[in-house]
């Protein structure tokens, strides 16, 4: 059995990913504090559910998917020593997690919301004894990238965890731009979606893509001048830096 503590956005995205990947959902348990919400999860995913109070984690594989600030409360409500604790909490270091929840092995992972479509890229670190198992579990929700340490998970949070929200804002702005110059919203949205889909398929490094698209005296060069004039590159760099710094304050 694999247990997920939490039934929020990310827990549901992981459950969808597991289901897409044909994980045996009867061998998944969801643990939480609200009976009503547990019932809904049970119906939606065909999983077993358990109330958090007094839940015994002994020898179990547990994915922790609650708010980072809930760590203290969770530790007071559960009992036992887990086999492996997989935490997806932003900003909570392995050392901190170890203080609150007892387990033989610990893994920290940073997936994203694309887990629901089995398209997350998940950064993972922790005890090498369970590296293979961690890679197996998280491969159900997409690709897995093993990183060196906690700090790299915090850095990955800025790109992988929060990244979909940043790209959503960029996508929305691109579509708005299309509408501004005269496209119908429906077409602007379709083209923008198509752009992101096309981009994900281009197997070249980033500067190579830019160089191949940017023609001398062409349309792209005009757009890039506007981006550079408005410090788009520096702004995005700072967005990543600030996001990383915030994870250190959670
Ligand atoms: N959203 C994302 O894209 C990503 C999120 N994460 C991480 O995943 C975790 C969950 O985030 P997300 O799913 O977005 O959050 P949600 O707000 O959607 O869900 C939060 C979950 O935490 C539970 N919870 C909150 N407080 C407590 C508490 N005191 N005791 C017990 N349970 C509690 C909630 O239960 P209840 O409803 O009963 O309050 C709920 O199950 C976070 O740690 C976040 O950093 C990581 C990568 C991406
Ligand atoms: O915004 C957050 O704090 C969480 C962590 C990464 C994505 N969502």
UniProtKB/TrEMBL annotation:
InterPro entries (UniProt xref): 6-PGluconate_DH-like_C_sf, NAD(P)-bd_dom_sf, P5C_Rdtase_cat_N, P5CR_dimer, Pyrroline-COOH_reductase
CC terms in the record's Gene Ontology section: cytoplasm
Domain Pyrroline-5-carboxylate reductase dimerisation: 151-250
Residue ranges annotated for the Pyrroline-5-carboxylate reductase catalytic N-terminal domain, each copy included: 4-78
Positions contributing to NADP(+) binding: 65-68
Associated pathway: Amino-acid biosynthesis; L-proline biosynthesis; L-proline from L-glutamate 5-semialdehyde: step 1/1
GO terms under biological process: L-proline biosynthetic process
EC number: 1.5.1.2
Pfam families: F420_oxidored, P5CR_dimer
Keywords: Amino-acid biosynthesis, Cytoplasm, NADP, Oxidoreductase, Proline biosynthesis
Reaction(s) catalysed by this chain's protein: L-proline + NADP(+) = (S)-1-pyrroline-5-carboxylate + NADPH + 2 H(+); L-proline + NAD(+) = (S)-1-pyrroline-5-carboxylate + NADH + 2 H(+)
Principal place of residence: cytoplasm
Localization of this protein: Cytoplasm
MF terms (GO), sorted A to Z: pyrroline-5-carboxylate reductase activity
Role, per record: Catalyzes the reduction of 1-pyrroline-5-carboxylate (PCA) to L-proline.
PANTHER family, alphabetized: PYRROLINE-5-CARBOXYLATE REDUCTASE (PTHR11645), PYRROLINE-5-CARBOXYLATE REDUCTASE 3 (PTHR11645:SF0)
Family to which this protein belongs: Belongs to the pyrroline-5-carboxylate reductase family.
Protein name: Pyrroline-5-carboxylate reductase
Organism from which the protein derives: Lebetimonas natsushimae
